[in-house]
Amino acid sequence: MLYDAADIDVAVIGAGHAGCEAGLACARLNKKTIIFTMSVDTIAMMPCNPNIGGTSKGHLVREIDALGGEMGKNIDKAYIQSKMLNQAKGPAVHSLRAQADKIKYTNEMTQVIQNTPNLLVKQQEVTQILVENNKVVGIKTNTGAVYNAKAVIIAAGTYIKSRVLIGECIEHIGPNGLKSANTISLEELGIEIRRFKTGTPARVDGRTVNIDEMEPQYGDENITPFSFSNTKEDISRKQIKCYLTYTNELTHQIIRDNLDRSPMYSGVIEGIGPRYCPSIEDKVVRFADKERHQVFIEPEGEQTQEMYVQGMSSSLPEEVQIKMLRSIKGLSNVELVRTGYAIEYDCINPIQLTHSLELKNISGLFSAGQINGSSGYEEAAAQGLIAGINAALKIDNKEPLIIDRSEGYIGVLIDDLVTKGTKEPYRMLTSRAEYRLLLRQDNADMRLTKKGYDIGLVSESAYNAFVQKKKSIETEIKRLQKVYLGTSETVQNILLQKNSTPLKSGISLFELLKRPELEYNDFNEVNDKRPELTPEIIEQIQIELKYEGYIKRQLIQVEQFKKLEKKLIPTDLDYNDVYSLRLEAKQKLEQLRPISIGQASRISGVSPADVSMLLIYLEQLKRGKNNVRNRG
Ligand SMILES: Cc1cc2nc3c(=O)[nH]c(=O)nc-3n(C[C@H](O)[C@H](O)[C@H](O)COP(=O)(O)OP(=O)(O)OC[C@H]3O[C@@H](n4cnc5c(N)ncnc54)[C@H](O)[C@@H]3O)c2cc1C
Description:
Layout: E1 3-13, H1 17-28, E2 33-37, E3 51-53, H2 57-66, H3 71-78, E4 79-85, E5 95-100, H4 102-114, E6 119-123, E7 126-132, E8 135-141, E9 145-154, E10 163-166, E11 169-171, E12 193-200, E13 203-205, E14 215-217, H5 232-235, E15 242-246, H6 249-257, H7 263-266, H8 280-286, E16 294-299, E17 306-310, H9 318-326, E18 336-338, E19 341-348, E20 365-367, H10 377-395, H11 409-420, H12 444-455, H13 460-482, E21 484-485, H14 489-497, E22 507-508, H15 509-512, H16 535-546, H17 548-566, H18 583-592, H19 597-601, H20 608-623, H21 627-631
Helix pairs in contact: 1-10, 2-10, 2-12, 3-4, 6-9, 12-13, 13-16
This protein binds flavin-adenine dinucleotide (FAD).
């Protein structure tokens, strides 16, 4: 028997990484919001790797934080090891990665959610999304409750019609043995569905791991917080170690001997898996020439003996998983706590979404996270934040917040999904971001904090701190342009110590610091009028100086990019009217209906020649000449 449970502003389906950010954003923007989940004990659960960040994913987390999201603050509370990756490379690929205490991560996020005004979380399965005249009006749950809502956000992750596969064992369940969502139907709303899959390795009992036979992996001494609102002093704590070992020929042989029992290779699995998170079966088959593969043993937390076996994701039968793990150095007596598995699930084709993550054909229905075909906690959280913000802005009849490809990895992520779509679980990579020198993890606040403040998610105090930081950077860069150093003995000695070419004549400190081997603090002796600056600000100044040329060049490219993004295409344009547009291009443009020439140029199957035809047609439309049509 159904009953009218409540009138709310936003219903969020899911309390995963996407749902948490979406729900918090809506509530913090004063929307009466309820997050629905299959289990309130698994808020922000990490069903896979116990870490946040990594190459390009660390950038996403810092952008979420700069916009006023929660993930950065949460991992700063729950990390057990922190590392800045790729420090030997350029700043564009420096990326933060932190090992998380999974239980603490969930507890901290639960605390935040259960103490946020306007926000409730309920353990109820959403069985139907209610739509009238292509407009969302609410949801129905398995307990017979009907919630009338002005907006609904689908953040259902890997649960919809999910099934778990371990060798011949197949169950229609969700991750970690949780219930799957088998009733809700997105197809009945006319939404195109895909079948994707992902996998996870076994968890082993740490007491049965011989770490003495492995290489310890340490965190950084000098750590960097994910959140711009934290200093390293705020979050510094004793870090745990991870351990490195390797597979070997015996491991590979055990896997080869049992490939026919792997659902991936026996064809039982229908879903498409992530190329960049391959299972160990995949690695042994695809990289058959490799003698060994890295295996990282990562503690899942301080209050558990469970250890994550990074690099050994598998859906082979349990007995085979035990054999293959025990063939690895340091794991010869290992006991499984949880068996590795593959999970297949329904997700949507993201080209059905606008850049605000709203369904094109259903007003007020938004979608975020793994359900959009992405993979990863960070990718999910970024989409959740944007969907939450835009659901709230829509209810207030305000323009949506769109981050474009030149402003953030979030912009690259969403534009790739809604413009190019994805044939497999989409994972963020630095190579996907054409303006990555501008989109560094260290300057995410410079790019996005003002946007977060303008929409009301970044607090006054956080914004003032940001304005102060920005001013300090700009002021000091200007000052360095006026600080002239001569060829004094002191200066020459500094250069000598740094193996840097001695000066023949005077130079500004601004110009001198462009030399890669020189650091700002090297000149403290002669740069005595310098202000008190934090290491973060000095890092910013150095990057701006050393990469000034590259940055300028990329800014010119961004100008070109923005020009094409501003060339809007009428939403009702009939592509059949555009003379000599190739058939494939007409079909793709008709299907995707890009909002700008810029977006049209990124659709696969639309050539530069097609884009020129479109530009000519739009120009003629603007001049009111329609002779193109007649010539057709
Ligand atoms: C086995 C496994 C392995 C993975 N491996 C990797 C990997 O190797 N690399 C990687 O980057 N990512 C991996 N992931 C993905 C990563 O976990 C997800 O990207 C991330 O958790 C997605 O977050 P989300 O918020 O979109 O969804 P989830 O974290 O899946 O959360 C979904 C939420 O929706 C709720 N829900 C679903 N349907 C309903 C309903 N009808 N009613 C009410 N509540 C509902 C659930 O209870 C849950 O709270 C893996 C995930 C799994 C399960």
